[in-house]
Amino acid sequence: MAQPRITLESGNTYHIWTHANGNDNLFRCKDNYRYFLERYQHHVHPVVETFAYCLMPNHLHLMVRVRKEDEILEFIRKKKNKPNLQGLADLGGLENRIVSQQFSNLFNSYTKSINKKYDRKGSLFIPNFRRKLIDSDEYFVRLIAYIHNNPVHHGFVKTPNNWPFSSWHSYLFDKTTNISKQEALKWFGTKKNFSVIHNQLNQEKMRALFEG
Q1: Which terminus of the chain, N or C, has less C-beta within 10 A?
Q2: In b/e form, how buried is each residue of 56-73, taking b as 16+ CB within 10 angstroms?
Q3: Is 178 within a domain?
């Protein structure tokens, strides 16, 4: 029996991941990765805070927290194509539908661009993106390390530092970023612990935990 779909609720943190549909790759060149992140900023950033991401050729991982109700309401009010929601005083449980729709908008807009660029047709992503609630400090820390180590686990690079399409680099360098790294680094305690935990991660064990 299929398990009930986890709802995306304000204030909760989730591991979100999805894969390419069939044998296609999601990303074929550097420009594809950059364009996806631009679309992510446009569609998804207004409704979630992002703590980690990793884009792989045929799949991706995200760690996000759904924004507060008032932030999502403000976003809705600014959307010209949602006039029937202008008078809402609260979300009343609509945040799951809104956040899910923004992810769908991201995947659909990216798919249309890739289909046009490479003269392909049909869906690019599997029908439903996966999600798992993350509800403890230990999980917060381990998930960030798990996401950053994904390219290592799949044999693309030797260390997270060698994979350019993840939030790992946002944590290492003092530059402007939309990653909520200051809060996340507090969970690790020190930057030394940040590196130690990344180096000691048992990827197979964490996969069972975060994708099970």
Answers
A1: N
A2: bbebbbbbbbbbebeebb
A3: yes
Helix (H, G, I), strand (E, B) or coil at 194: helix
Measured distance CA(212)–CA(209) in Å, rounded: 6
Residue 105 lies in a domain: yes
Summarised one tens digit per residue, pLDDT across range 116-170 is 999 999 999 998 999 999 988 878 999 999 999 999 999 999 999 999 999 999 9
φ, ψ for residue 110 (rounded to 5)?
-65, -40
Nearest-CA neighbor of 110 among 31, 188, 53? 31
d(CA 78, CA 72): 10
Least confident window among 38-47, 59-68, 84-93, 124-133:
84-93
pLDDT at residue number 91: 62
Contact 167, 180 (CB under 8 A): no
Return the CATH number at 192: 3.30.70.1290
Give the tokens for residue 86: 């202008």
Note down the domain range covering 198: 13-211
Average pLDDT, the chain: 88
167 in a structural domain? yes
